Amino acid sequence: MASQSQYLIRNRHSNQWYGRVVIPTLLRDQFNGKREVRRSLQTSNKTIAKRRALAFWLQCQEKFERIHLGEQSSMRYIETHDALGRKHVFDLDDPKDEEKLAREMHENANKLLAKFSDNPEILERLLTINDKQLAQPAPSPTQVQPETATSFSEAVDLYIDKLNTQGRKGKKLSQRTLLNYQGRLTFWKEVFGNKHIHDITLSELSTIQIWLTRLPANFTKKGLSTEKAVKIAKTIGDYPKNLVSISDKTRAEYLGQLKGILEYAYACGFTTADQSRHVEIPNTKQIKAVERLPFSDNDLVKIFPKDYGVDFGKKHAALDWDVRYWFPLIALYSGARLEEIGQLKTDDIKTCPDTGIIYMNITNSGISGDGQKKHAKNKNSVRPIPVHSALIERGFLDYVEKRKADKKDKSLFKLKRDNQGRLGKGLSNWFSRYEKRANGNGHILGYIERRGVASKGCYDTGERWTKTFHSFRHTAIDNLRGKKLNNGQFIREQDIGLVMGHEKGKLETANYGADRSQLELRKAVIEAIQYEVIAI
After folding, report:
1. Are strands 17-22 and 8-10 parallel, antiparallel or unpaired?
2. Is residue 330 part of a domain?
3. Helix-strand-coil percent breakdown of the chain, rounded to 5?
4. What are the tens digits of pLDDT across the range 444-465?
5. Domain interval for residue 218
């Protein structure tokens, strides 16, 4: 519930807590221009104050909704009864048109009354027809019906189909991103079910943003259904001891997909109100993520001992021994990303005809060994990475030739994708996994854990850190800083970015001149990566 602290403030002159609620911009005129409202929560106990602050917040949201609906119902429209007692409601864009049409209806009624004033039977029939019409409740001018009556469940199915075929905002989505989106959308599908998406109220959206903070993390893995997890989240009181609530980042993902489906519904005419405007997504940019640390010299000694390769685990594991041997070494001497290495094919190990430099070709064109399209993280990730001489001395090219002998599989490492489309997930698990066994007896340890390198931990301040396969990238970058090229020049951050494929916006490397982006420079930077503590 700490994420709700933005609605909770403390008087600096006393121990009393106050609830604080921001007034929607469109309604501030109703509050004499005030930006927010505050109320004393009559307590110095923070736990009690949180509950009261949430109740105050919900009370305010309901009031805002009533004012909002009241403003809509007081929109300029004409409601009138003509001389025959017929009720007319005119709600046009132009008030002048409304007045003109109202006058015409009144003139028409007066003409009918004058024409049939001596014929009571006809007048009675006209009044009888009108009475039957008035017996049916007239539709409220604020409740305009959507073009298509669509349930939330149907809307989600259509939206998921759009994401799969067209992507989002004109951009195709990766398999991993699609699966993540679908998981969040399926959750909302189960929450709202077959309720018409047009009937979702602002009060519901306000309430959701409160109880979602208490939704149990990874509830499906703990055997909880969506219904049970939501029930726990909505229950005010002590939280189950064996559960923790979702992080702000995960909450932002849930709300992001709720906002996305509501935007889609409005664009498709499933609802006449843009309800997505009332979904507030928490700003997670200020939230400090788990820090990923580089490997220390002591770590490297443990990971790459003199007898490197004898502690790789089971002989007949899913990953070949050669894969477990070469993958960490390539990352150590190149700083390449896990998926960049994983999608390499044997013919991606090339030799430049002009310089004789052997390099790994990282590209987003063509297909990987399993037949799926290659991809790169960003534009600058498409690059040649010279093979470090330390790898060549250890027989890397012999391994490449060995793999080329396999005529059926042209991938360099013969990896299989997981259900999210990742080639390197299995390798990552083997390398740094640390999790409890299903039976509760002990832990499953990855390679570095077995070698005595902790894969995760906390600082005294409570902030968490991890060491994973990606730590090799940080290790290589840190190793290059302060080094010199053979000509005596210091290696610049731009040179490091050129080799590492840093994305645009962090270090721009795509616009270097031709003299700075030649293969020789990349080779010189790669060769500057040296680890004196490694004896293999």
Report:
1. antiparallel
2. yes
3. 45, 10, 45
4. 889 999 999 999 998 888 788 9
5. 152-278
